[in-house]
Design a protein that fits this description.
single chain, alpha+beta, DNA polymerase, domain 1, 2 domains, five-stranded mixed beta sheet, 34% helix, binds FE2/S2 (inorganic) cluster
Amino acid sequence: MPDHSDPQDADEANPRLSRRNFLQGALAAMSATQTPAPAAPAPQPAPPAPSAPAAPARPVTLNINGKEYSLSLEPRVTLLDALREHIGMTGTKKGCDRGQCGACTVLVDGRRINSCLTLAVMHEGERITTIEGLAQGGALSPMQMAFIEHDAFQCGYCTPGQICSATALLEEARAGTASAVTPDVRKETVFFTDDEIRERMSGNICRCGAYPNIVAAIRSVALRKG
Ligand code: FES
Ligand code: FES
């Protein structure tokens, strides 16, 4: 005769085969396999590398604004720090100290450079001009005057770098040096359009956003002379 009894009843009757026992066993097995392994010890940070001993200071003579300065500088001293910390010329500003803002722009043999990115010892025998050296005989340079006339600054922190950069810009364009926006690089004459001025001044950041007045000041000098 066929057995019509409920299998669940059979499971309940045999505790070793009951569903509850099966599930309890499975859960126990799962929790056993999911027990996190003991954490590996955190790697120890490498001890800091011993810093290289500073190279000894050496005599350096810099020609700044037409005057010779005899200094004793470590070779790692930037031109910017030499100007500000060793000579006391604080007109050249330190903004980012990493070549991004242009606040430290000075002229070296007429070329504009970021003085935070170059070492002072590299400029012996060169003609360094800072914002303090642009005025002649007590008279402001045309670019300095134009910045005042066009109200081309607010806080003024970027202004020395802007004026040094703008001063060199005029000579670069007059020498026919093309920029990224010069329409025809084969032509020797560069016109001082606002696009040219903005592109050539793009390395000088103004946090106050005085750009329209800066461009107007530079344009006025460029058109006056050129
Ligand atoms: S301080 Fe030199 S570029 Fe900013
Ligand atoms: S005037 Fe303030 S950063 Fe240029």
